[in-house]
Amino acid sequence: MIHELLLALSGYPGTIFTWNKRTGLQVSQDLPFLHPSETSVLNRLSKLGSDYMRFTEFIEQHTGHVHQQEHHMNQQNQTVLHGIYLRAFCTGLDSMLQPYRQALLDLEREFLGDPHLTISHVNYKLDQFQLLFPSVMMVVETIKSQKIHGCQILETVYKHSCGGLPPVRMALEKILAVCHGVMYKQLAAWMLHGLLLDQNEEFFVKQGPSAGGAAANQEEEEEDLGLGGLSGKQLRELQDLRLIEEENMLAPSLQQFSLRTEMLPSYIPIRVAEKILFVGESVQMFENHTHGPSRAGSILKHQEDTFATELHKLKQQPLFSLVDFENLIDRIRSTVAEHLWTLMVEESDLLEQLKIIKDFYLLGRGELYQVFIDLAQHMLKTPPTAVTEHDVNVAFQQAAHKVLLDDDNLLPLLHLTIDYQGKDCKEATGPRDGATPPQDTSPREVPPTGWAALGLTYKVQWPLHILFTPAVLEKYNVVFRYLLSVRRVQSQLQHCWALQMQRKHLKSTQMDAVKWRLRNHMAFLIDNLQYYLQVDVLESQFSQLLQQINSTRDFESIRLAHDHFLSNLLAQSFILLKPVGSLLTYVTVLIRHLGQK
């Protein structure tokens, strides 16, 4: 019977030890020579055999490995679980079972040498597995019942390994180390070569936009913070530099990747995952750019082999060390960030590009827009038509020539756009390079004037497109339209003053004096607003941005400084304050009435 027991514990039930799918392995009840205490001990041992058979069945189902037995495998009940992390888990589980198999072999050898050994000896030898197998079975059942997938398996195994039983902890740590091997291979492909090897969507980096915050934003209340009409949602929009969904307006040459946070194990902080995402995106951009290597060389400065060796060393460690892991990620990120800084600041002349942005989006070339306003006033004061965009671009070119702005390399990169009703269907077939695609194709109201539909596009050159993304340029467009409206109102007030000066020799009435005082008050307000915007906001923030760029050699620091710059522009210029927009509209209407006489 001892050999029947060892065979049953090895996964081969027979007549004495029978197998039932529901109850597992049990000693037969039809054996009169067994004492109840012996039956109890045998059933206790049979639980180990049951767990072992279920382990091997799980391994066979998900790896195709066939061990010593071909027991009752139900092919029609194949689970939908799949993936390389699950196969790695099964590999680790199989290695965990090896000491158990060896213990059975040792027992068989001992019984062959001493036939008088009892069942108690088997119970003693296998007692170490009585705590281990049920704990590991809980992990397997959790994976099966909850359909745990991909990197979530790492989290599940890690949580169960944090218990107080040393044998269980050590076994699960070995399984976790095998699963980490898959993660390190994916990390090496992503961070060193820009390859996202993830056919089954198991990695915590994915291609495409993040979909985490959309539902939460819909539930946000429009609470009034008491800041002159600024609501809580608007304040969050000012602070959130992803105000506009970038995934709807990405240039074809720039693929977007994001974190799949539900796959990220809890022992890897989100800050580390974001560094991994940044490195992979940067390397992937260089790998996909055809003339990038000839211009800039390797973004990792030809240290791919060194970093690959260090990742392999981490893979060989029996326990995951967050300190060592994050230190290596930081070194790779620093190498990439410094190379990007050199490429952008020194080779692509980022400071000159920022000056262009300031001159045209932030109205740094005030004389250009003053001439443009005079030339385009008659064509933009009415609702736009299909030819308005062409006409305003002609006027823009004329204004540039009048102020002696004849840069043949710069002007072709700038293009004024008019977003009018009916334009969507036309631009859907072939949008202009660098232009912001329409956000939706639903019918929209016709803008009341061409000024309300005016926008500016700038064709950003590689690799500056990773800093000046379409979403960032769209936020610059928000500032551009706002500053241009202030400039137009100021110009109209100055024109109104000129008309009043022409009529001052005529006999004036008391109503004329009221109009003059009103114009004077409005001019005082708009002139001070314009001074505040140009000096206290734009020049001050731009100087801080240049200082921060020159004080670092890290691209991420540049991107953060630029994001803060743009966020501060939106916040300090009152763009999202409804009273300011209403004020400009009201002043425009008053000026129109003042100029009628």
Automatic annotation (TrEMBL):
What is the protein's name according to its record?
Gamma-tubulin complex component
Gamma tubulin complex component protein N-terminal domain: from which residue to which, for each copy?
A: 2-347
Which residue ranges does the record assign to the Gamma tubulin complex component C-terminal domain? Answer: 350-587
Q: Which PANTHER family match?
A: GAMMA TUBULIN COMPLEX PROTEIN, GAMMA-TUBULIN COMPLEX COMPONENT 4
Map out region (Disordered) in residue numbers. 427-446
Subcellular locations according to the entry: Cytoplasm, Cytoskeleton, Microtubule organizing center, Centrosome
| Molecular function in Gene Ontology | gamma-tubulin binding; microtubule minus-end binding
Q: Which UniProt keywords apply?
A: Cytoplasm, Cytoskeleton, Microtubule
The record's annotation in InterPro entries points to:
GCP, GCP_C, GCP_C_sf, GCP_N
Query: What is the protein's quaternary organization?
Result: Component of the gamma-tubulin ring complex (gTuRC) consisting of TUBGCP2, TUBGCP3, TUBGCP4, TUBGCP5 and TUBGCP6 and gamma-tubulin TUBG1 or TUBG2. TUBGCP2, TUBGCP3, TUBGCP4, TUBGCP5 and TUBGCP6 assemble in a 5:5:2:1:1 stoichiometry; each is associated with a gamma-tubulin, thereby arranging 14 gamma-tubulins in a helical manner. Gamma-tubulin at the first position is blocked by TUBGCP3 at the last position, allowing 13 protafilaments to grow into a microtubule.
Q: Name one GO biological process term.
A: cytoplasmic microtubule organization
One GO cellular component assignment for this chain's record is: microtubule
Family to which this protein belongs: Belongs to the TUBGCP family.
Lineage summary: Eukaryota, Metazoa, Chordata, Craniata, Vertebrata
